[in-house]
Amino acid sequence: MDNEIVQPKAFPNNLLQKDWTKRKLSEQCGQGFVDKVHDMLVRDDDVWIVTLPKCGTTWIQELLWLVLYDFDFEAARSEHLEVRTPFLEFEYMIHNDLDHALDQIEALKSPRLIKSHMPLALLPQQLWIKKPKLIYVYRNPKDYIVSRYYHSRSLGFCKDTNLQEFALECIEEESTVPSEDFEHVTEFYELRKEPWIFYTSFERMKLNLRQVIEDICKFLNKEINEEQMQKMLHHLSFEEMKKNPKVNHRWEFEQMRAKFKSEYENNNFVRRGKAGGYKDELSADIIAKLDDMIQRNLDYYGLSLNELLLLDGEVAL
Ligand code: A3P
Predict the structure, then answer these.
(1) Which of 87, 115, 232, 242 has the fewest CB atoms within 10 Å distance of its CB?
(2) Residue from 138, 142, 183 nearest 27 by CA
(3) In Å, how far are 65, 74, 139, 274, 309 from 203, measured between CA atoms?
């Protein structure tokens, strides 16, 4: 089932005019799950959060949940984030039980906040018709690759691989241009001006979290007063999130570690939280190779990394 090539039942042709036949979609969940997600019922008041792994999903998820649920910090502190706002692919990944793969999500009261890493073409077909609110977050690939390495080790993978080797493997996997990751982000980037889409980046959140909170409140038609804003900035700060057990994916980790049964490294999920942290973690040689891989993809789309991150050179990438 690993990296099987799957075929969506239908393509979102009403969103992006492109030659979908040239699109290869490998997806660890497999065709059965992809078909089930394709047919899933979407509610008008759903809010979706879609990202590539390790781009700041958890950070924006907690932010969004609090905005949606009227800044109920007490409720946020008393239940795991992934129970309040489930990860679409998780249940199937753990139990491989197609019949019950979406039970947790279907049982959720409205408004649901649903997280997924699936690419646009594999998301539920009703999303392309109902167009509920959807938030997409991107991040500098060099930082998310480093973050993915520590995450993998937290799950007991990459025991005999160091970070530099892991980055080389990522470059190898992403060697086709356009790469799957770049397809993922550019499809949402192209849709960023749609009224139902909010596109942002980890780097924008680092630069001005207040602005992102304000923009998201506007996007979701929610009011926020200064007292609530101050509480949000405190609750969502790196230091607070790092020590908050409810946002460090302990519920999910427990199940994944039980499933994989391998020795794991206990990295905190909210780990370092830096923009540009790769600079003191990756060797100059690996950074040059990553830059080359990234540039080939950007050239393909005629975009710059700053454009994809919605930056005007405020951050040294
Ligand atoms: P690092 O591993 O670079 O520290 P995701 O939720 O998509 O898996 O992303 C995880 C990344 O977001 C981790 O990056 C994590 O530390 C970072 N992150 C989570 N909460 C954060 C916060 N409040 N401030 C800054 N970074 C945060």
Answers:
(1) 242
(2) 183
(3) 20, 28, 7, 9, 7
Residue 93 lies in a domain: yes
| 235 tagged catalytic | no
The whole-number pLDDT of residue 259 equals 87
Beta bridge partners of 199: 136
pLDDT tens column, 15-37? 999 999 888 898 888 999 999 99
Active-site residue identified among 117, 151, 235, 249 = 117
Low-confidence ranges of the chain (pLDDT < 70): 1-3, 315-316
* Per-residue pLDDT reduced to its tens digit, 177-193: 999 999 999 999 999 99
* Tokens describing residue 63: 């932010």
pTM over 0.85: yes
Among 180, 202, 229, which residue's Cα sits nearest to residue 3? 180
CATH value at residue 222 = 3.40.50.300
> Has residue 278 been placed in a domain?
no
Q: Measured from the CB, is residue 276 less than 6 Å from ligand 1? A: no
Tell me the residue range of the domain where 25 lies. 8-140+176-245+259-271
Whether residue 127 lies inside any domain: the answer is yes
Candidate from 49, 58, 152, 315 with most ligand 1 atoms within 8 A of CB, to mutate: 58
Residue 311 belongs to some domain of the structure: no
